[in-house]
Amino acid sequence: MTSPCLRLATEDDLVAINDIYNYYVLHSTCTYQLEAEPIEDRAAWFRERLRQCLPVTVAEHGTQVVGWGSLSRFHPRTGYASTVEASVYINHQHHRRGLGRLLLSDLVERARSAGFHSVIGGASAEQTASIALQESLGFKRVGQLVQVGYKFNTWLDVIYLQRMLGPASPEQPAD
Ligand SMILES: CC(C)(COP(=O)(O)OP(=O)(O)OC[C@H]1O[C@@H](n2cnc3c(N)ncnc32)[C@H](O)[C@@H]1OP(=O)(O)O)[C@@H](O)C(=O)NCCC(=O)NCCS
After folding, report:
1. Nearest to 59 by CA among 39, 88, 27
2. Is 92 in the pocket of ligand 1 (CB under 6 A)?
3. Atom of ligand 1 nearest to the CA of 87
4. What count of other Cβ atoms lies within 10 Å of the Cβ of residue 64?
5. Rg (Cα) of the chain, in Å, rounded?
6. Predicted local distance difference test score (pLDDT) of residue 3
């Protein structure tokens, strides 16, 4: 199989991005969204990232988009402006081929180049693939929120992980 190509997303990728995501809405606790994302909302989400100069990336095999990633602001208040959150979703038929690592490590480097201080990753506590991927890239567990989500008739915990990018101070978790 040829190597995947990684590039910035365009509006032409939004249907593929949304299809990949909506599979997980319907089948997984990796997102707590309960109903499929309408394509109009995905387009607004994309425009907002463009406006904020935050990247949306895709991995392609040939002409097929097989995964995507994005950086989002961690929190809208101005004092959080140095912190971003990373998201990565791989087409469920293309797992364990290195795509998640490719997309997430690229997002970390984009965040570093853009001058952000740290990247946050969130994962539902039972999402072992997500947690293992992030830990393999140097994200450290920094907290767990108990039963903040409810999906598929089950209460769910969220684990937050953090990858420091800037120079550490004594109060900050080590890189
Ligand atoms: C989590 C996810 C992005 C991983 O993507 P992937 O392309 O399958 O993962 P990769 O092949 O790049 O694996 C990289 C590392 O992640 C870990 N990993 C990935 N899948 C795993 C699994 N099922 N179980 C345990 N570890 C796993 C491993 O450490 C792996 O390294 P290795 O293959 O050398 O052991 C993918 O499962 C996915 O899209 N899940 C749904 C969305 C989601 O949870 N997104 C949040 C991720 S930040």
Report:
1. 88
2. no
3. 48
4. 12
5. 16
6. 87
Residues 6+ apart with CB under 8 A from 88: 67, 68, 69, 100, 103, 104, 107, 133
Using CA atoms, how far apart are residues 150 and 130, in angstroms rounded to an integer? 18
Probe ligand 1: pick from 72, 131, 133, max atoms within 8 Å of CB?
Answer: 133
Cβ of 97 below 6 Å from ligand 1: yes
Q: What tokens were used for 107?
A: 């997002």
Question: Over the stretch 5-63, which tens digit does the pLDDT of each residue have?
Answer: 999 999 999 999 999 999 999 999 999 999 999 999 999 999 999 999 999 999 999 99
| pTM, full prediction | 0.95
Ligand 1 and 33: CB distance under 6 A: no
Domains observed in the chain: 5-164 (3.40.630.30)
**Among the atoms of ligand 1, which is closest to the Cα of residue 30?**
44
Mutate to test the pocket of ligand 1, among 95, 120, 137 (most ligand atoms within 8 A of CB): 95
Assess contact for 57 and 32: CB atoms under 8 A. no
Closest by alpha carbon to 129, among 163, 153, 94? 94
Do 131 and 170 form a contact (C-beta atoms < 8 A)?
Answer: no
Rounded mean pLDDT of 79-89?
A: 98
